[in-house]
Design goal:
Rossmann fold; about 150 residues; alpha/beta; globular
């Protein structure tokens, strides 16, 4: 199983937009990364997001390029302060490749839980609109495969 973890794109400040939609830069970064993934033949079966506008907009941009067969869905357990154990339980029975578009600190804690079993260990430095690819082997062990960020994609 492949798991793609995406921190939402840059969001507007609360004073400018209380719902915190994406900035122009946030949209462009997400488009740049999703286009790169498409050119790299990355396949995603389904994209999950937290329901917050910035995550939903980012997920929709990725879905436009990647066209996941099972679509895009809001899922509980992906909010910034949610326990990563909630989504970890959902991952146990999954075999398809999924993308999670979410927030810090949740994504960092989820990656830490999967990679080393300790949500407090900092093992991945996420960047807005960046993607971290994790793989689960047949024994249920996770490893980091690669990471791509907007500043390295031309």
């Amino acid at each position: 199983m492949l798991l793609y973890l995406v921190q939402h794109g840059e969001a507007k400040q609360k004073e400018e937009d209380p719902s915190r939609g994406l900035t122009i830069k946030g949209k462009k970064d997400a488009e740049k990364i999703s286009g790169y993934l498409l050119k790299s033949s990355i396949l995603v079966d389904e994209i999950f997001h937290s329901g917050k506008l910035r995550a939903e907009e980012t997920a929709d941009i990725f879905a436009e390029s990647l066209k996941p067969v099972q679509g895009v869905a809001k899922v509980n357990g992906l909010l910034p302060l949610d326990s990563p154990a909630l989504f970890h339980e959902k991952l146990l029975g999954m075999e398809r490749s999924i993308m999670i578009v979410g927030h810090l600190p949740h994504l960092g804690r989820l990656a830490s839980l999967l990679l080393c079993g300790d949500i407090e260990r900092h093992v991945v430095s996420f960047q807005m609109a960046g993607v971290v690819c994790l793989a689960r082997d047949l024994n249920g062990l996770w490893s980091m495969q690669w990471m791509i960020t907007p500043d390295v994609v031309i």
